[in-house]
Amino acid sequence: MSVSGSPSRTKGSTNRGALSVPPQSWWSRLWSPFWALPLASIIGAFCLGIVVPIFDALIAEHVPFLFQGGDDGARTILGAIAAATISVTGLVFSITMVVLQLSSSQFTPRVIGSFLDSRVAQFTFGVFTGTFVFALTVMRSVGRPDSDSPVPQTAVSLAFVFVLASVLVLLFFIHHITNSIQVSKVLADIGDHGVGRIIDLYSEDERDLDSQSWQRPSRPRRIAVYAEDRHGCTSQINFSHLVALAESADAVIEITQPIGRFHAEGQLLAEMWINPLQDDDSNDGPEERERAIAKRVANCFWLEAEPSARQDPSFSCQQIVDIALRALSPGVNDPTTAVQALNEVHRMARAAVLRTEPASALRDDDENIRVIYQPFGVGVLLDLAFDEIAYYGRDAPAVRARIGDVLDDLSENCRPAHRKRIAKKRREINKIFAGKTPE
């Protein structure tokens, strides 16, 4: 089974393209919400606050330097700890909200997700809320007549240790916040993620050079796959599952839009080219089986409110460009930040032109084409990285000079297949600088 226009490939080629970056696992998605880690800390602290007082009598006699006060002293300490930690939790929440507001207004709203994904902020909330819940839970055990130890010395001492840990975490959180709102740090973090994804998706293998325009397979049956009642940007696609589905049905799946694009309800997601299904032993007819296959294909597309940089380096590039455009706006007029943004897109573009861009077809183990998609190629990267910055920064000498330096470096160090694209982009940029609209 073949597709016309496909190049010859050696089995085991290194350019796996989109298959190199699998979608987020269910375990990662479970811990991805901002509230997941604090909630786990609350549950763990509650359980610890119940278990530790039960074994307090067994532990206290073997551990020195524990709390030696009475019931009133224990209640006072635990009450002070609970009041202080919940107050500081409110402070941490306020700081986080201010940082999110500043990042949205000063940089771009699209970087808010990066701040919310920060494990430092989540861990800080978890430590303070966990300490608060632990202190309240232990307070229930103080002075209980049915307890072997009316004052849970180990639990009170442990609460004091949690307070010391909370103070250290607060200091680290403030240090993290002051660094994270620096524009150079924001740009570097986004650039690191974008470069990493390009390295994952692109290939070092010269044999895979250039991705051809694949013709549609010569199969008589077309199955359209729609978004049905879902809408949003394609944040992730389970490419390996698509390849397996196409292989099992002896079909070819063509994804109609690049990853990251928005889909409205009922919009076409993909086309599946397949030989007509024959009747089998099941009670379902060919049409019912085709609808079932189409639904399984549609479930491989994750539609969310915002794109994700996990499989789409263009989202990282767009974040950097947005920061540069905000810096070049008349109300800000900060060409230095725009130059810093160009440094990061330079890193992404350099990583791409030193490698082979992903092929537009994914194959099974027998080297048969199973999925055709639109990868993030060098041409798309150059357009996204430079066009808007060149247009809005054409009156800033620093921006013009930096774009020229970047294109010079890319042209000198790229693979031969990318040189024409870089030369074309240079001509387009020169037209933009001259006040003309590129073709």
From TrEMBL:
This is DUF2254 domain-containing protein. The keyword Membrane applies. It comes from Microbacterium esteraromaticum. InterPro entries: DUF2254_membrane (IPR018723). The chain crosses the membrane at residues 34-55, 76-100, 120-142, 154-174. Residues 1-21 are annotated as: Disordered. The keyword Cytoplasm does not apply. Keywords: Membrane, Transmembrane, Transmembrane helix. It comes from the Bacteria.
